[in-house]
Design goal:
The chain is of the alpha/beta class. The chain is built from 16 helices and 14 strands. It is globular and about 95 Å long. It binds adenosine-5'-diphosphate and magnesium ion (MG). Magnesium ion binds next to helix 1.
């Protein structure tokens, strides 16, 4: 059991604009269907509709089987409570559990608070927790916690969720969903934030899973290794390629060619009918005998326009990042014996103007800590020395969307805060193809568009050194020397990045040491 049927689904944005129209597709039992499409086209919205978080404005949806959902901002909740900083790891695990377990947990939590005064109520809540499958879920969570973080559930359950890295949060959620008993999984960008080894793990898990899976991914390798069908959301509607990613480019070309042929047929027919009306009008001016023929021609044109819709023109998305920044001194960054407490051994590093340096390492080894430190966040516990070169102003693009101060502010207002006036701000947004969202509040943007808007703020101005976490675009390459023994990622899990860093260092001549386990 496990199918999804979506039929003529439509959804309008709160302002009334149509985002999705006539979306139809089917995911059969055991399919791994990839949902692809340009940024902001509505993929996450479509998954939210299927998950029941939103109500469709038209069409029907049928799901056979138990549903498991991983949202795009796993750990950060949905876009409405992104600023919720109080969540624990247990809250994440509960949010992935079936509703009866979530209800029993809420009841147990309240009963626990009054356990001394109302012991009977507490006993009943415990029994209800067991009946709902709570204890079985805890066994699963414990196993997944060991696999994802290397620690038992008891050791991490009450920790703030934010103490896990983005990749660890995703890995934990994926372990729970893939090992749980849901028949149908909806996974929104499951590979985001995963390190190379975890991506390989995910590829294997998806490829071998017997569940029915609908997932969003932008990773061609993951799509090639796992997708059995591909649903493309495009121009408000959708179309399906019934095979894997290998044949997708060809299928898309044929689809676009067919649309173009259909557009030509439409345009020709419309022109023929318009010409006929013009000709009958001309003749009717000369002779009244042509009046009925003019009426008939006008009526045919009207019916055609009402009945037929011109096939949409699909334009390729073109994003044009500018990460140049201004000229600085030759040496952009010097690090001497820098040690991130509990994460790395002391290491040295020098980065020159123009270098592109990638920081590689398993999830949770401290890559984001390192970049935050370079961005001036002195709360990152460390010892040793680091110094930016003359004229270097860092700009940090972070993997998660932590900008509570931007909530309620439009993109133009945010850029104005960065001293960018309307004209240049619009051209900046145009380069990321988000100029259409200029007056939209930040929190209502799609995930990718939020990333685009943040990069327009962090990289476009006079930034002369750009630190970027996660998106595999342009970033800084360097590698701390040794992983601490207690760090969550074992040396074996870093082997792939070790090779890459080594070969990169060799090819550019910049100093970079491969990590060695102690
Ligand atoms: N509550 C909302 N208010 C206004 N716009 C929204 C809201 N929710 C989504 N959108 C817009 O809908 C579009 C699709 O979003 P989303 O489904 O997240 O896209 P993606 O395909 O990148 O996953 C985006 O342009 C986003 O800004
Ligand atoms: Mg999305």
């Amino acid at each position: 059991m496990g199918t999804i049927r979506v039929s003529h689904l439509g959804w309008r944005l709160p302002g009334g604009d149509e985002l999705l129209r006539d979306v139809s597709f089917m995911v059969r039992e055991g399919d791994r269907a990839a949902l692809v499409g340009a940024n902001g086209v509505g993929k996450s919205t479509l998954l939210s509709l299927i998950a029941g978080d939103l109500q469709a404005t038209s069409g029907t949806l049928t799901i056979d089987g138990r549903l498991g959902v991983m949202r795009q901002f796993v750990g950060l909740g949905n876009r409405d409570d992104e600023t919720d900083h109080t969540k624990s790891i247990r809250d994440l695990l509960l949010s992935l559990a079936p509703q009866p377990i979530q209800d029993a947990a809420a009841r147990l939590r309240t009963a626990e608070e009054h356990a001394t005064a109302e012991p009977i109520r507490y006993a009943h809540a415990l029994a209800a927790w067991g009946d709902a499958g709570g204890y079985a879920a805890e066994v699963l969570w414990d196993e997944c916690s060991m696999r994802a973080v290397g620690l038992p559930l008891d050791a991490i359950a009450d920790r703030p969720l934010r103490t896990l890295s983005g990749g660890e949060q995703k890995r934990l959620a994926l372990e729970v969903l893939l090992r749980g008993d849901a028949d149908v999984l909806l996974l929104d960008e499951p590979d985001n934030f995963l390190d190379v080894e975890a991506k390989r793990w995910l590829e294997g898990e998806l490829a071998n899973s017997r569940k029915t899976i609908l997932y969003v991914s932008h990773d061609r390798e993951l799509l090639a290794a796992t997708a059995t069908r591909i649903v493309t959301v495009e121009a408000e509607g959708s179309w399906t390629h019934g095979g894997g990613f290998a044949g997708y480019a060809e299928a898309r070309r044929s689809h676009l060619d067919k649309l173009e042929r259909d557009r030509t047929i439409y345009d020709n027919e419309r022109k023929r009918l318009e010409d006929l009306v013009a000709e009958m009008r001309r003749r009717a001016r000369i002779s009244e005998a042509f009046a009925p023929k003019l009426k008939a021609a006008e009526s045919r044109l009207r019916q055609f326009v009402e009945r037929e819709e011109r096939p949409v023109d699909i334009r390729e998305q073109r994003i044009n990042m500018r990460l140049g920044g201004a000229r600085t001194g030759k040496r952009a960054l010097v690090i001497e014996q820098l040690e991130l407490d509990g994460l790395t051994d002391p290491f040295d590093l020098e980065i020159d103007f123009g270098d592109r340096v990638a920081v590689l390492g398993g999830n949770g080894v401290g890559k984001s800590h390192f970049l935050r430190l370079l961005n001036g966040d002195e709360t990152v516990a460390h010892s040793g020395m680091w110094r930016l070169g003359a004229g270097v102003a860092p700009g940090l693009f972070h993997q998660t969307h932590e900008h509570p101060e931007w909530t309620g502010r439009t993109l133009l207002e945010i850029l104005h805060d960065h001293d960018v006036v309307r004209g240049p701000a619009m051209s900046m947004l145009r380069r990321y193809e988000i100029n259409g969202c200029a007056d939209q509040p930040f929190e209502t943007l799609s995930g990718v568009n939020r990333r685009a808007s943040r990069s327009s703020c962090s990289s476009d101005r006079a930034r002369r050194c750009c630190c970027s976490t996660s998106p595999p675009t342009t970033s800084t390459w360097c590698q701390p020397k040794h992983w601490k023994p207690g760090s969550p990622s074992s040396p074996a899990r870093c082997s792939r990045s070790r090779t890459t860093a080594g070969s990169y260092a060799a090819s550019t001549g910049s100093w970079c040491s491969a990590p060695t386990a102690r």
